[in-house]
Amino acid sequence: xxxxxxxxxxxxxxxxxxxxxxxxxxxxxxxxxxxxxxxxxxxxxxxxxxxxxxxxxxxxxxxxxxxxxxxxxxxxxxxxxxxxxxxxxxxxxxxxxxxxxxxxxxxxxxxxxxxxxxxxxxxxxxxxxxxxxxxxxxxxxxxxxxxxxxxxxxxxxxxxxxxxxxxxxxxxxxxxxxxxxxxxxxxxxxxxxxxxxxxxxxxxxxxxxxxxxxxxxxxxxxxxxxxxxxxxxxxxxxxxxxxxxxxxxxxxxxxxxxxxxxxxxxxxxxxxxxxxxxxxxxxxxxxxxxxxxxxxxxxxxxxxxxxxxxxxxxxxxxxxxxxxxxxxxxxxxxxxxxxxxxxxxxxxxxxxxxxxxxxxxxxxxxxxxxxxxxxxxxxxxxxxxxxxxxxxxxxxxxxxxxxxxxxxxxxxxxxxxxxxxxxxxxxxxxxxxxxxxxxxxxxxxxxxxxxxxxxxxxxxxxxxxxxxxxxxxxx
Length: 475
Known about the structure:
Blueprint: H1 3-9, H2 13-24, H3 32-35, H4 41-68, H5 78-84, H6 86-118, H7 128-146, H8 153-176, H9 180-185, H10 202-215, H11 220-223, H12 234-256, H13 264-268, H14 275-284, H15 286-320, H16 338-352, H17 361-390, H18 394-414, H19 416-439, H20 448-469
Helix pairs in contact: 2-12, 4-10, 4-12, 4-17, 4-18, 5-6, 5-17, 6-7, 6-15, 6-16, 6-17, 6-19, 7-15, 7-16, 8-15, 10-17, 14-15, 15-16, 17-18, 17-19, 19-20
């Protein structure tokens, strides 16, 4: 397609930015206002400043790499592989695969809880009927994807409307009922107390916000793909930045406005997900919860299809690239990788059973999924640094440095135990990676860093397994 044809048929700047926003918003935003209610308004705002800045740096890195290395079309893991070897590519891809299907566990919990508002048999989303229904839906989606069903544009449109309309309705009503006096009363960190009456430190309140805030940004790493549909190539970078700024604005408004609409204790008392429906019900009455939960249910049905395809496509791409055994990438007559679909669905189903044994299955699923994507995001930032250093681009290098530094800080300070558990989940993947190398009759240590990373991840994963097994680590 030449430039004239692109401008005639392509997507303009504002619609392109809207696509970035729509592709990144998932179900997490519907529960974020109570997920961060363990922090006062001041701590939550500071956390948004920290996370928003880090995600902006990451999105700028993704956009820069897309422009500088358009030849890397193997998937999100291709940047890690290009910069740091085959095993780095495996780490990035395996982490992204874990994030995608763990996200489906979170979606299942949220969907069942939303259904529980209308059908009490699913109340709470973590009982036997919820697990049975989630399992049926899970394998139903696997059957559809195995038949070659893809996420059609009409489904995308419906899903986007059902996500955004309730969000904007919530924002408008929350603004109209917002009280600056109530917000100020909820602003000071001194109002957050422990069970024995001690003030929770400001730093602890910040740390309690970070994971849930990062979770709602999972998806921005794939948002820039829509850039190929732009009228002008110059619009891609602008749309990415506008999209990320739009996301930050939406997330901040949705999560912070409730601080000005009700006392902190009342906000903290809402424990059922999706919290937005119950918060909105307190604002406008029962119809508010019906609108929010109804829209979320329709949205999650569509989002679940997309997120069933994502991990399967990641696994297929990794197999085609030689990072996983060939059998994992083989496709049926409809072009769908049956083995990858079945294996991914089985893994998701096993974790779905955790709904029966924990009071916080949704939190467990999204925190583990966020911890897994840290590896993918970290290698994105590191490759941004490496490529920019080679090209002597100081500004781009600093962007990559800030993006990478935040990921390292989050891995060690915010979610150390979750990251260690993810490293345990890397151990079976390492076996399959070695099997793939053997199939291709290629050395494991293709470059020196391959051997270093392989030994490091294996040792740390084994130590983590031992620590979890002895109870010295837990999540």
